[in-house]
Design brief:
Blueprint: E1 2-5, H1 10-21, E2 29-33, H2 40-55, E3 61-64, H3 69-76, E4 90-92, E5 98-100, H4 105-122, E6 134-137, E7 156-160, E8 165-167, E9 172-174, H5 183-192, H6 211-220, H7 222-234, E10 247-248
Helix pairs in contact: 6-7
Length: 279
């Protein structure tokens, strides 16, 4: 099978449209994994895309909601011994320096959920049965080609149509069926096709959020902002999870609702480079 990893950002959504329209080979499914608290605008776009799929014979969209990172972060901090996939929160060390936790959430709440759904639901394989070779399409554009990565699984081939490469565990090779496009090219394509451009996709509590994104959320999306503040306070004392230092969502290691954001901020994200989020 060919599966589009649908993050509902600009690039992966363009992959979905192009594949559905015949501008790329037709994939079998697109899978969106909901971590529980994407931005409100992303859920609005998902509803639009589901209606577009029905009206235009688009590729079937599967929404997976088996794990909820938002609720886990709010509840598991108070549950001693119960493991959680950590977010890359900032920590304040005793000497005043700051650090960042290793990110586990992308694998546990996104990648693993896609892989598991393909194995169990699409192929119907029992545990320990050999997995069937599958292409996972990722929406990384030509200007981000350094984010391409090799597969960690023998069965998984990772296709990057906008870079015209496909990778497996052994290495990378070129493909001739992709379309080389930068992010700006893709945005121009949305405009040409008269399709709405997706909002930038991320969890509302993602520590990689830019200063501009935090401020826009605070000013314009009170529901999302309130959810982020709840998570920020919930993770502060995580000693029962083995994190001795206080944890924060904001890089200043100040409680999120106390951060003062200046005007006219650039939209720069912090640290994300794996090719799994914001696509």
């Amino acid at each position: 099978m060919r599966i589009i990893s649908l993050g509902l950002g600009v690039q992966s959504t363009a992959l979905y449209y192009m594949s559905s329209m015949g501008q790329l080979p037709r994939a079998d499914y697109a899978i969106f994994v909901d971590p529980g608290k994407e931005k409100k605008a992303t859920y609005v776009y998902l509803a639009f895309l589901m209606e577009w799929q029905k009206a235009n014979d688009g590729i079937p969209i599967i929404v997976v909601r088996k794990k909820n990172l938002y609720l886990d972060l709010l509840s598991q901090m108070n549950s001693r011994g119960k493991r959680f996939g950590s977010i890359p929160a900032y920590i304040k060390n005793p000497d005043g320096s700051t650090g960042m936790l290793r990110r586990q959430c992308t694998y546990e709440y996104k990648i693993h959920q896609v892989d598991r759904y393909i194995r169990e639901e699409l192929y119907g394989l029992m545990p320990r049965k050999r997995m069937i070779e599958t292409e996972i399409w990722k929406g990384i554009s030509l200007d981000e080609i350094e984010r391409l990565s090799l597969s960690t699984e023998v069965w998984k081939k990772q296709a990057y149509p906008f870079c015209q490469y496909i990778t497996d565990k052994a290495g990378a090779s070129k493909i001739d069926w992709g379309i080389k496009m930068t992010r700006n090219d893709i945005i121009s394509w949305f405009i040409k096709m008269d399709l709405p451009i997706p909002p930038k996709s991320s969890c509302v509590f993602c520590p990689f959020m830019s200063e501009k994104a935090w401020k826009d959320m605070k000013d314009n999306d009170p529901e999302d902002w309130a959810a982020a503040v709840l998570v920020d306070y919930a993770i502060r004392d995580s000693r029962n999870k083995g994190v001795l230092q206080p944890m924060y969502l904001h890089q200043s290691c100040i409680p999120l609702d106390q951060v003062v954001f200046p005007e006219n901020l650039p939209d720069l994200w912090h640290g994300e480079c794996s090719g799994e989020c914001h696509t």
